[in-house]
Design a protein that fits this description.
There is one protein chain. The protein starts with 8 loop residues before the first strand and ends in a 17-residue tail after the last strand. A hairpin with a 5-residue loop joins strand 11 and strand 12. The chain has a seven-stranded mixed sheet, with helices on both faces. The chain has a two-stranded parallel ribbon with strand order 1-2. It has 543 residues and is α/β, with parallel strands linked by helices. The protein has 18 helices and 15 strands.
Length: 543
């Protein structure tokens, strides 16, 4: 009697193995967080704890069974493994959450930024947890027993998974409900369901929804102020990147990170919050007429912003771009972009340090004219994780610094030192802009506003970088610096009480919401879009 032999692995067994692998390996960020939560609970049932892996494996087995379509399953699982490996690393090492805003940020990431996340640790993680299992799946001979038997086994697998979930719910529903309600963010840590849902939402929002009609704003804008001293106004608006307000000496930080500007008459606003925790959200939001509470990315993309309104008013606008893109804000005004691949002493092929903008800025200031002018400098600032590449070697003021991109493997001291060096260098850039403006006070009423897009986590509570959902984000990611310097001429043109301004800066609470109206008010732009209650200078005008 012959013995039949069917080589390979059955589809249902592969699915179960993958469910086990995803929970016990790729969902390490979730299990680590669950362990921390359970450790701090009183009277936790042993049965509840033991049911957790059964619950998640059953749920994953159910999901993978449904997507395991003959002839397509290999490709689906290989892609899932590779993507999930990358997501798992970012979540476990940096505390990144892959919500829809993060998906937008990823899609707008340029080559240099993407390369900065590549290092030995990330590549090893990806190879071991992504590439190796993906190769095993690719080489596996998946056995199918005919469509009738396959359908039967799939049905039994689905019913078995549902039965396991139902049985767990019967005995431990209250435990799951309690932990879930008190830690609702846990669903955002489940791999691959949450990042796939976010990606789907991003694709739908960006590519599948019908585009909104364009909404023009501020077409009635005009400069409506007398020139008491006969000089036009000139404002330099510096958009910082990843600078956190708590690391500014001007805000009470006990290190000399503002060594270059602290004696230059700069006013620092102590309490300012960002609109988002990632550039893709914060930059469009801070220039939008919308406030954080009602900000909608789709609407923002289809209407005029602050830069457009200034342009409608007849101001001479130039945007200098050194952070890989203005996220649509500068699309309708003259823009000078600095391309890392063009080379030069301040560019390494992936990024240019912010000093690259100084010479073009000085040239723009030399250009004569009687038209009011706004020059926007979008800085690369403190963009991580390769902080050490954001400043020249001579600006390594705090040592030892962290000379690597896998920043979680640097000591806390090294990481803070290298980050503070980026703030120190940004402060130098700001001081150079100030010096250039002071040299042109005979031609212009000059002013400078510096405002960062968001902050950064540097290992506090195990979090690194930025991009957490705003409701979960710590202060390190949302407290941003806002600096202002006004020449005597621009201050007089605005009728400002300097003591009032100092008091506002020390005691007031502000946000990105204030930028739109504060710039309009500072530049004397009259439009129906202006809201004086959001102009942080309005209470200090005496005229």
């Amino acid at each position: 009697m012959g013995v039949s032999f069917q080589p390979g692995i059955s589809s249902r067994r592969l699915v179960l193995l993958l469910a086990l692998y995803f929970f016990f390996v790729l969902n390490l960020p979730l299990t680590a967080k669950l362990a921390s939560i359970l450790e701090n609970l009183d009277g936790v049932s042993v049965g509840f704890v033991l049911s957790i892996p059964v619950f998640f494996v059953a749920a994953l087995n159910l999901l993978f069974t449904l997507v395991a379509v003959k002839h397509l399953e290999k490709g689906i699982f290989i892609v899932l493994l590779l993507l999930s490996s990358s997501v798992s690393y970012a979540m476990f090492q940096y505390g990144v959450v892959f919500d829809q805003d993060m998906m937008a940020n990823i899609m707008q990431t340029h080559q240099g930024e993407a390369k900065s996340y590549l290092n030995g640790a990330s590549l090893l993680w990806f190879a071991l947890t992504g590439v190796v299992p993906a190769l095993l799946v690719a080489r596996a001979r998946i056995r199918h027993d005919g469509w009738v038997k396959d359908l039967l086994w799939k049905s039994l697998s689905v019913l078995g998974s549902l039965a396991a979930i139902a049985l767990i719910a019967l005995f431990y529903y209250k435990d799951y409900a309690s932990v879930g309600r008190n830690n609702s963010y846990l669903r955002q840590l489940i791999i691959p369901t949450y990042f796939l849902s976010s990606a789907s939402g991003y694709v739908n929002q960006t590519y599948l929804k019908e585009e909104l009609p364009w909404r023009a704003l501020g077409e009635d804008a005009k400069v409506d102020r007398p020139r008491h001293n006969g000089k036009p106004n000139l404002l330099v608006l510096m958009v910082g990147e990843t600078a956190r307000g708590m690391n500014f000496e001007l805000n009470g930080y006990p290190r000399d990170t503002n060594a270059f500007t602290r004696d230059q008459g700069v006013v620092s606003f102590q309490s300012v919050s960002s609109c988002g925790t990632a550039t893709a959200v914060s930059v469009p939001c801070m220039f939008s007429r919308q406030s954080k509470s009602d900000y909608d990315a789709e609407r923002s993309e289809r209407q005029d912003n602050l830069v457009d309104v200034l342009d409608h008013a007849g101001l001479d606008i130039t945007w200098f771009e050194n952070d890989g893109g203005c996220k649509g804000v500068c699309d309708r005004v003259p823009t000078q972009s600095f391309r890392p691949e063009d080379g030069g002493p301040l560019c390494d092929g992936d990024y240019c340090q912010d000093g690259v903008m100084l010479a073009p800025l000085r040239q723009a200031l030399e250009r004569p004219g009687q038209q009011d002018r706004v020059l926007v400098l979008h800085m690369v600032g403190s963009h991580g994780p390769t902080y050490f590449k954001r400043y020249p070697a001579e600006f390594a003021h705090f040592t030892p610094d962290c000379q690597r991109s896998d920043i979680q493997n640097c000591s806390a001291r090294e990481l803070v030192n290298t980050y503070d060096n980026t703030i120190y260098y940004s402060d130098y850039i700001i001081s150079q802009v100030l010096e250039a403006l002071k040299q042109h006070q005979d031609q212009w009423n000059t002013g400078l506003v510096y405002l960062s897009d968001h902050g950064e986590s540097l290992g506090e509570n195990g979090l690194y970088l930025h991009g957490l959902p705003y409701a979960l984000a710590p202060e390190q990611q949302t407290h941003v610096p806002l600096l202002m310097w006004l020449s005597a001429g621009l201050g007089d043109e605005n009728g400002l009480d300097n003591r009032c301004l100092q008091r506002q800066a020390k005691e007031g609470r502000f946000s990105h919401d204030n930028l739109f109206d504060s710039v309009l008010g500072l530049m004397g732009v009259n439009t129906s879009q202006y809201q004086s209650k959001l102009d942080l200078l309005a209470p200090c005008r005496t005229g």
